[in-house]
Structures are given as C-alpha cells and as structure tokens.
Fold each of these.
Amino acid sequence: MTIRLADHTTLRIGGPVGDYVLATTEAQLVEQVIALDQVGRPLLLIGGGSNLVCGDEGFDGTVVALGVRGLTFTASPDFVEVVAACGESWDNLVAHTALSGWAGIEALSGIPGLVGATPIQNVGAYGQDVSHTITQVRALDRSSLLVVDLTAADCAFTYRGSVFKEQPERWVVLEVTFRLMVGGESDVRYAQLAEELGIEVGATATPSQIREAVLRLRRAKGMVLDPDDPDTSSVGSFFTNPIVGDAVAATLPTDCPRYPAPAGVKVSAAWLIEHAGVTRGWRARADSRAAISSKHSLAIANLGGASAAEVLELASAVKHRVQVAFGVELEPEPRFINCELGRSPD
Ligand SMILES: Cc1cc2nc3c(=O)[nH]c(=O)nc-3n(C[C@H](O)[C@H](O)[C@H](O)COP(=O)(O)OP(=O)(O)OC[C@H]3O[C@@H](n4cnc5c(N)ncnc54)[C@H](O)[C@@H]3O)c2cc1C
C-alpha cells in the first residue's frame, strides 16, 4: 500500500514515500538512522507531522516515525525533573504537568506534535517557550554517530530556532529533560492571556488555570487540532514574526505591533499580512482549496483535498504582498520537504 505524507501531516499535503518505518525504542531509532545514513538513503524523521510542508512529489526515501515512549518524573521540594522520550505526545505531557500543579510549560497547551520536536524550533506561545524549562537534550549526532547529552546552552535556542533547526540533517532528538516548578503559580506576562484570565499582566495564575485559558484562546483561533474544523488543517503559524533592523522598523506604520528582540525589532507577521490586503479566508484563486484560516491570518488551511502546489501558491502570494507593501521578507516557520516557496506572479 502506498503511504502518502498527506496522511501523516496536519496540513494533509504531500505525495508518496519510498518506505515508512516506525521506531518504538531508542536503540531501534538509533540503529535505523545509522543504517540508512551508511547506505546514503534519504531519511525523513516524522513526529506528529504538524510542522511539515511536503511536496506533491512526496519523498523518495525512508520516513522514520518517532514512536519512542517513556516518561519519568523526579520530584524534589522545589522542582520536578521531567524526562520525556521523543515520541511522547507534547500536549498529553503538558496536561499531566499542569494538572499536577507543576509550572513552566502550561502556556504551551494545545500545541500538536511530539516532545522530540519541541526543542527544534524552540516551541513557544503565550509568553513561554521550551527553552525556559529545558535543561538537557539527549540526541544522536549523525555526524559522529554518538549519542550525546546537550545542555540548554549547547542547544543555542533562539526565537523559533536552535542548533537542531540550523542543522536538520545532523541531529535526532531522543529525549528531552524539563525542570518545572512545584506547587507555584506562574507570572502571566502575555496581555491577551492575562485578559482571558481576568488578571493584570504580571499577576499570577495556577498552571491549570493557564492551561484552560490558553486552550480557550487557541480554539477560538483554530489553533487546536480538530478534525471537524478545516481551519485547523494547517501547520499553525505559517510565518514567523520577522525580526527587522531599527531602520526598517522605523518605516513601518506606528500601529504595527513591535517588540524588542535580541537582534533587532520583532514585528507582528499577522498585522503585516492583514495590512497587506490579505484577509481571513483569502485564497490566491477563487477555486483554490487552500485558504488563509477564517480565524487567524497567520495560518494557511487545507479546506479539503488541497495540493501542495495550492498551499505554496497561497503562501508565496502572501509573502509577495507583504514584501511589496512593507519591504519585509516573511520567513516560513515549518520545514519544507521536496518543495519550496516560489515568487507569486501577482
Ligand atoms: C494547529 C497548530 C498549532 C500550532 N501552534 C504552535 C505554537 O503555538 N507554537 C509553536 O512553536 N508551534 C506550533 N505549531 C507547530 C508544531 O506543532 C510544532 O512545531 C511541533 O513541535 C511540531 O512537532 P511534530 O512532532 O509534529 O514535528 P514534525 O512536524 O513531525 O517535524 C517537524 C520537523 O522536525 C523534525 N523532527 C521531528 N522530531 C524530531 C526529532 N525527534 N529529532 C530530530 N528531528 C525531528 C522533522 O524531521 C521535521 O523536520 C502548531 C501546529 C499546528 C498544526
């Protein structure tokens, strides 16, 4: 039976794969990756498939699905150390820790995918990202064939980035260790989340309260997977918030939201898209089955049966419109497999 990437990705696009194997133990995963590398066979690691844009031609190699499970919790008076294997469901872990009253990842509720992918783009939302709590990542280094323990500093986390994202062919994340605070409340620094909780920015709430509020906000934006809601057939945000220099930031309208960032000024991609004339529900062509989500201008949704070409056509058109309107280059957030963004003719 032909296996198609469309059946293993949340955007539901992508053609056939050469072959598909499921690794259920760390030893199996390491062995499979090394064996494939030794014969030079192209390899695609896949977790929840929620950050992948795959081409219609598919992938002529082996897809290795990450089914390695395992969780340990070690408590001390002030914190709990959580060690999670790469194939654990991210949101199940967040639900468990939030219900246990352990603080640190509760604002990352409702994000699809598996634990092993979270360090790759330093998954983040609502004022938290995993770099705040990750203390160690255990990974296979495909260049040395060694399994190594990386500290948070070794991971070189940035906004939606890390050493793993920089060198996607080098690392296989096997296990991630998080340090969460016990029995406390978290500061809520994200204005929209504070408003949803009915508290001031900087006030505190319990991990469970934050999880519930985040899930409500995310559902309203189509940012929690729901098979009955085509807006959630996406990769979440298609573009990152661009980080621009002060000179470019000064040319943008004053009402464009902006935040200080280590290497410049981070500006809202959603604002740029909406003010470049791309409205929610917008399509590149009237008969396209890919559209901007009706709930969030940063998400591209497969309304049913869209091809990768339709998704890419829309993404390219959005990127082009923002470039023309504001001179800012949007960068896509997901990883592209056997496809790329072109330049829109419009
Ligand atoms: C509705 C929706 C909402 C989202 N919201 C957010 C959000 O708020 N914040 C956010 O940051 N992201 C968000 N995302 C993006 C996505 O869910 C995250 O990036 C998630 O961590 C991807 O996990 P995954 O297991 O699905 O990765 P996949 O899509 O399976 O893989 C992504 C990439 O990582 C590689 N990879 C996966 N696992 C490993 C591993 N163990 N070792 C090495 N490489 C690996 C893959 O080869 C691929 O290149 C959202 C996506 C959707 C669909």
Amino acid sequence: MRFQEIPGMEKEKASLIESVQADHVAHAQLFSGANGSANLALALAFATYINCLQPTGTDACGQCASCQKNKKFIHPDVHFIFPTAATDKYKREDAVSEKFLKEWRAFLMDQPYGNLEDWASFYGWGDKRLVIPIKESRNIISALSLKSFEGKYKIMLIWYPETMGPAAANAILKVLEEPPGKTLFLLVARDPNTLLNTILSRVQQFAIPSFADEHIKQVLQSREGLAPEDIDRMAYEADGNMRQALQMQDEDAGVAEYFRQWMRHCFKVSFAEMVQMSNDFQKKGKSFQHSLLRTAFILLRETLLEGVQAQEVSRLPNAERAFVEKFAAVFNPDKVAQLVPLISEAQYHLERNASPKILFLDLSLSIAQIAKA
Ligand SMILES: [Zn+2]
C-alpha cells in the first residue's frame, strides 16, 4: 500500500512524511479512526514509506525491493498482530497471527478499509469473538529481539489492540516503552478510549478523520457501472465511511445480476421461476427491492440509448452492455415506454408497503406480456 492509493488525507500523509524526513519518528504510534476510515491503510502506507529505499517527498517509490515486498505484505521486517479465534486446527490460545498470515495478506489486498467483522467473515469465523491472545505478547517481544533483515525499521503493526486482554496488554508495556533500536510500533485502533491507560500513555496518538465525500466519490467513480446519481447517493449515505460505500457498490453490482436473471425468466414466461424470484425479492428486504427497481430504470434508459444507436453515451460495463443489447432486441422503444410507468408505479406502491411478493409477481407477468406482444 502506498500513500497515493489512499484518496485525500493530504494533511495526514504530509505529517507522516515530514516526521521521517525530519528524523522525528515516534517509536510507538496509535492510528485511531472510525469504521471505514483510512487508519489501517495509512499505517500500511507509512510502513511502506519508511522502509522504502528510494522514497520521494510524497510517497514510497513502489519499485525498490522493499516496496515490492510491502506491496504483497511479505516484508520480513514488517510484523502483523491481529485478532483471531479458534479453528478446527488451532485451539484458542494457539490461534496466533502467524498461523493466519496467508489469509490476512489476502484480506489486506481485498479490504484495506475493512473492520473486525469483515475479517471474521473473510476468514470464515462468522460471529465468533476475535481477540489477540496472551501468547501474542511473547511473539511480539521475540520478533523484535531479532535484528532487522533489511537494515531499516522493524515494524510491529497491531490491528485492533483493543481486543488484547489486560494480561496481553500489560506484557508488552515494557517493550512498547523502550523498544529495541529502529523499532516502530504502529497500533491501529477504532476506539482509543477502550485501550488501557498504560498503553495510551506510551503511544503518540494520531487521529485519522473520516473521508470527505469527494474522496469517496473518487473511489466509486473508478469502479465500473455506477451512474453519477448512484455515486452521489452512496457517498452521501456512507458519510465518510469508505467501507460502507464500497459495500453499497458491491450490493448494487449484485442487484444488477438479479435483475438480469429476473428478466430472463420474464422473457421465457417461466411461471414457477417468476414466483420463486418474487419470494426471494421479498426475503431480501426493502433496500434491495428499491435498488432492484432503480437498476431497472437505469437499464431501461440504456435500452433506449441502444435503440437510438447511441452507445457512446452509455456508461455500462461490458457484462451489462451485452445484456442490454439482448434486452433491446426484445424491448423496442415502444415497449420500453410501456414498461417505465409500470416500474414507477411499483416504486410508488413499494413505498406504501404493498406486499413485495405480490407486487413483483404482478410486475413479472406484465413484463412477460409486454415482451410477448
Ligand atoms: Zn521503494
């Protein structure tokens, strides 16, 4: 992870870089930030920067041997401690971070703005409680007693230190206060108030703000298939939480696939499948149902554009483009014009608590009828 991969946060990046250039790096720092903030991402980018062999004034080089390793989270001088739970293979006390590094690296690649819940579900722990067990404090001390492999900083990144019990936390106080030379503790926490005072008094606190809407929009814009109004809505609803914005985007992508499947059943007039899908839509809840109808609107708009041969106006990714082409072959502009009021009527009734199951089944039958006409 490099600074440039994190949108915004200019002040925070500058202050971290400045501390390196002025040789004033505090040996124990606490990056705290709310859910979906850049606390972990900035700590990772800082670790990359500080060990880069050819850093610039604004970022790590991304090319040197150290950057190559940090990119894959396999730098031998960067150690990770994070909460875990027991598995079939490891008992609670033996489930230490080093046993899960492969999955952890994949998680960092996939969800640098993820939280503890995401990590639990990524690994498959479900809703088990994750903690940093006492055994980790011994691992921390022994990892730091080694000489650094590549001559620069040894870094100990502890994610969610608030999940350390008092015994584990107390066991690292001494090394946190007086770490061996060229050692850097980066604690990445959500809520510093839940940490022991003895820990807090030994770290330099660095509060990471939530993202600005414009930076959330920037990330959403780089993803395919979102209309500007969706981007605005998601950025507004996410309220500075990048994790939430990305999740909404994933859900929307899932909705498009449901919509395609639903339309296929309507075209084929597969009655049993139409009933099944209406039941599924009912179970998925209000927010899903609304975004399904919104998706219907977007795709109808694209179908009209397809009808007038205006592909260049379209913003759809390839998967949806192929679908729209087939859809437009069945639904000419006249048929689309019949569909639009049906969709907006469905939205109207959905807001007024109509039964989703009946509403979507009715809609399916009407769509099937228009397709066949
Ligand atoms: Zn580098």
